[in-house]
Amino acid sequence: MALWTVHGNGRRPVRDAVVASEERLSWPLTIGFGVQHLLAMFGTTTLVPLLTGFPVGTTLLMSGLGTLLFLLLTRNRVPSYLGASVAFVVPLNAAAKEAGATPAALLGGIVVVGIVVFSVGVAVKALGVRLLESAMPPVVTGAIVLMIGLSLAPQSVSSFDQQRVPAALTLGTVVLLIVISRGMAARIAVLIGVLVGWCYAALAGHLVPERVAELADAPWIGLPQLVAPQVHVSVMPFVLPLVIVLVAEHVAHLKAVAAVSGRDLDPHVGDALISGGLATTLSGSAGGSSLSSYAANVGVMAATRVYSTAACMVAAIAAVVLSFSPKLAALINTIPMGVLGGATLVLFGMLALVGVRIWLDARTDFSDPVNLVVLGTAVIAGVGDLTLHLGDLRVTGIVWGSVGIVLIYPLLRSIADLRDKPRET
């Protein structure tokens, strides 16, 4: 039995139709969609290990393998790409600075977080999705999707400002193709936009000289560096709160994809958490960063209306190949930050509005003060990256914003419901 059925004639999607997770187009087109996913995740997935002191090639390898594991365990039902989680950067650096943790000890923390996320997935799988729905109803997941999308806005705008002309060309190309075209051009708008921006930057001499030099010097073949983890108790207070962040990101990813694709993915929440936890455990055990579903890749799917897991598989295999080819990785790394900023400006904006769509579909009541106060405060804290200092521990806005939404909202919701009960009777 084939893993994917061919959508339509395979050469072009049916007009305005969604290419479902179990479908694919022709392999050349599927490879093109996979390249878009690769470009969307590449910049951040290579940046996170640089900021945390892990080998870039190893994280790239584990990102590809983790995505393949995710697709396998979710039985090709959930389109997703797992890239390096930005939420871990500040906590890991704080653990290294304040607790003197070595890279091996930081990796041990990532392994433990992955095991706990896996355990949450097992519990959800065994007890039913209602266990998670009670803690993360649509009002919560919509807020997390919105917060993730908007919290990435400063990163996108900062990249855009570095090289405004190629960034504007990329942004304009993507927007015009999505709005004007009804055919294949709209579905590969991100890829075309990046190519237009990169070509302009190359012809105008705007490529970063250091990256061009790295491309020239990089060998065609090289082995990723593997690092063994060590579990130290001193690292746990810094990383364990991130369990909630990873769980929230995975669940929010499923809700976002379900909202834009029109398919119910709730039955697969347990499998997604199990596979996501195992992927993070696998990555940390070999020297890679923690892995999570990527916001930019959700944006790619929303823009193209192609949810085929075959495209995600292509991106994963490409990441594995790149991890063994420093030359090819260096070539992609020559894409200017401004070009990526122009593309992600569209993708992150679309993701943020998916959070709003989740609220609209659930008919969230925003005359309710609990919804207004808790969700509004948490979203602004996450978007503004309001960092809290708890002794030597620094908690970023995206971390405590997610924790606040997931833990504090149900508590205050219960208190408000108890307050209103006497009035009803």
Automatic annotation (TrEMBL):
UniProt entry tagged with the keyword Ribonucleoprotein: no
Domain of life, source organism: Bacteria
Transmembrane annotation, as ranges: 47-71, 78-96, 102-123, 135-153, 165-181, 188-207, 227-248, 306-325, 337-360, 372-391, 397-416
Subcellular location per the Swiss-Prot or TrEMBL entry: Membrane
Gene Ontology CC: plasma membrane
Keyword annotations from UniProtKB, A to Z: Membrane, Transmembrane, Transmembrane helix, Transport
GO molecular function, one term: xanthine transmembrane transporter activity
PANTHER family given in the database record: PURINE PERMEASE C1399.01C-RELATED, URIC ACID TRANSPORTER UACT
Family listed: Belongs to the nucleobase:cation symporter-2 (NCS2) (TC 2.A.40) family.
Protein name per its UniProtKB record: Nitrate reductase
Source organism per UniProt: Saccharopolyspora hirsuta
